[in-house]
Amino acid sequence: MREEEKKPTSTIRRILKQRWALSAIYIASAAIILAAAFLLQNSFNDSAKDGKEESAETGKNYDQPSVEVNSNLETIKMPVADADKTVIKKQFYDVNADEKAQEEALVFYNNRYEQNKGIDIAMKDGKSFDVKASLSGNVSKVQDDALLGNLVEVQHEDGVVTRYQSVKDIKVAVGDKVKQGQAIATAGKSQINEEAGVHVHFEIRKDNIALNPLDFVDKQASAIQSATEAEGSELDDSAKKEETPAVDETETDKEEAPAVEGPKTDKKESPAIEESETGTDESPAVDETDESTDLESGTDEEGSVPGEDTTEESDSLKDSLKQSN
Q: Is residue 254 classed as helix, strand or coil in its secondary structure?
């Protein structure tokens, strides 16, 4: 039994004693490690491919926000291919402009004047042209309107909207994603502004407030947000300044509080009580009776004095007579 147990161990020792044994072991272990690493790499590549496919599918649902973010960094362009070949038929109505400019920016229709809330762009030669998207965004409204000459509205970031009126052959629908410079319609005519001929009425609105497009052309869309915030702060400051007189009025009302001092004067009108006290002091009525009694006694005394004087005179006369006799 002992000899049988010693045979396997002796063979392993013999193999290990060979010169090629250690190198063979290293090579075998290296091959095993490389094979394992290769298998792991393949598994990672497969999972990465699956992740990319999933992200691509889920990313389709987020195409709209990505366009809005990019549009906020875009530079606003005129809605035409070549702005140098165009002319503005009617300007935006600016409340800060002079009277002449305001008159020229009025639109006359149906015996009524309307303020132009955008700019009317036409070609110098009067021909039709493709209307381009001024900014990337999503089509939010498409409306057939003979009076306005049809309407296309594109929604952007931060409540900014671009509107294109007096167009025909509309090439987009609601929900479509458009890129800057993409043709969305063809210039046409409108009943409300027939004098402009073939043109496009272009508007930029922020929170449904019309802005002058020429103030923002060749500027980033973020300039609209900063400009409206600055105007809002100026309006707030002016409103606060106008509201300060109301505070002064309240202060004057507070200063007019002396009217409340009426009851204090009533309290000071305690002379009524003093009158009552003087009334009690008006015991001179009793003094008058005393004075009357004094007068009466005085008269009596005066009357008695003369009587006494006459008797004394009579006595002196009697004495003189006796002496003469």
A: helix
Taking alpha carbons only, the member of 157, 136, 134, 104 closest to residue 203 is 134
pLDDT in tens, the chain (325 residues): 455 555 556 777 777 777 777 788 888 888 899 888 888 888 777 666 665 555 554 444 444 444 444 556 899 999 999 999 999 999 999 999 999 999 999 998 888 999 999 999 999 999 999 999 999 999 999 999 888 889 999 999 989 999 999 999 999 999 999 999 999 999 999 988 888 999 999 999 999 999 999 999 999 888 888 887 766 655 455 555 555 444 444 444 444 444 444 444 444 444 444 443 444 444 444 444 444 444 444 444 444 444 444 445 555 555 655 555 4
What is the β-pairing status of strands 119-123 and 200-206? antiparallel
Report the SS3 class of residue 199.
strand
Spatial contact of 72 and 221, defined as CB atoms under 8 Å apart: yes
How far is 239 from 237, CA to CA, in rounded Å? 5
Using alpha carbons, select from 58, 67, 57 the residue that is nearest to residue 177.
Answer: 67
Are residues 203 and 167 in contact, defined by beta-carbon separation less than 8 angstroms?
Answer: no
Pick from 219, 203, 215, 121: nearest CA to 160:
203
Give the distance from CA 103 to its chain's centroid: 31
Write the single-letter amino acid at 196.
A
Q: Which of 229, 247, 140, 234 is nearest to 184 (CA)?
A: 140
Residue with tokens 């300060």, as numbered in its chain:
244
Helix (H, G, I), strand (E, B) or coil at 112: strand
Partnered with residue 88 across adjacent β-strands are 121
Strands of the sheet containing 167-168, edge to edge, are 130-132, 183-187, 167-168
- Residues 6 or more apart whose CB falls under 8 angstroms from that of 247 comprise none
